[in-house]
Amino acid sequence: MNTEEFTPPPKPPPLLKKDQVNQLSQSGFLPLDIPASLAVISEDLFKLSSEFFAQPLASKEAQYPQAEATELGYYHIPQEKEYLTFRYQTSLTSLNHSTARFWSLASSLLHRVLCDLSVALSIPLPAWGPLLKGCLSIPSSREEATPTLLRLFNYFPNSGAAETHTDTGLLTLCIGTAPGLQVSSRASSSSAPQDGQWLDVSTRPTVLVGKTLQWLSGGRLEAGPHRVVANPDGRQSIVFALRPSLRTRYFDLAPFGESSVVDIVGLWQEIRGSVFNVNAQTRIREAQKERMRAKRLFTGEDGENRRGESEDTGRGMKTIEDIKGPGNGS
Questions:
Q1: How far is CA 193 from CA 164, 183, 232, in A?
Q2: What is the edge-to-edge ordering of all strands in the sheet holding 198-200?
Q3: Which of 24, 51, 47, 74 lies closest to 222, judged by CA?
Q4: What DSSP letter does each residue of 99-124 carry, written as one string?
Q5: Does pLDDT of 239 surpass 70?
Q6: Confidence bin at 193 (pLDDT 50/70/90)
Q7: Rounded Cα distance, 95 and 70, in Å
Q8: What is this structure's pTM?
């Protein structure tokens, strides 16, 4: 018997076609047919989340208390939307069980997409290991949680919306029950989209590139601007945001074409700090935007973390050699 016939392939088979890789790289978004197993668990999750959102406000707040600003638990924004955020497994309910199953399938899908992008950009697949540590299945406790999250949205009829923004992480998967999600049709994220440059994605699942992935690629991948517009009948959506793990603080950029090391915690904090939170209460959003405007006027910074802002890395962030002060070597 020739054992070579049964040797496993050195890498996963491609999920995306060449034109899909090009679209995702250049525009930052890609409508994508998802596996049947993921579609089935999505329907189950929509059913269970509808039952949850139908409960009295006090009951929802008691079951999933707010924590870490908007990053965990139930959050209600009057006249706009309500949503429930998971970052780790909390209890053995039907909703939480479906959340864990969806997390596993969605992270597997986005990992495959990341592999295809890596091949196109000549990035070795093992390079992503430290950034995905603990992210591909739902953590079992708060202590093991990473920035990666799963969020269930319920947008209210006629008024439920989200302002134009780009996500902060690596890749995001969005699945909706009704039209409302729009993506920018422009080729570059260096300028704000104008009216007429928005495309409706209807209810088709969509993958979005985030700011961290744009930064790591040196600008070869574009973060995808998007927004949610009001639907007269309301709208539910499931958003899975694959974000960088912070368990390995110092990350070698050699596989990405840079002879330096980046403080991934500092990178994540700076990217998070460069944007306002579209899911915060209106008064908080406006205060964040005002602080950002003031900072730009004072420093001249654009807050976009785009390539070319630093002579040291070409990515606008400090390397480990640039970091000073107590505790930075731990």
A1: 8, 9, 24
A2: 162-165, 226-228, 181-184, 198-200
A3: 24
A4: HHHHHHHHHHHHHHHHHHHHHHHT--
A5: yes
A6: low
A7: 19
A8: 0.84
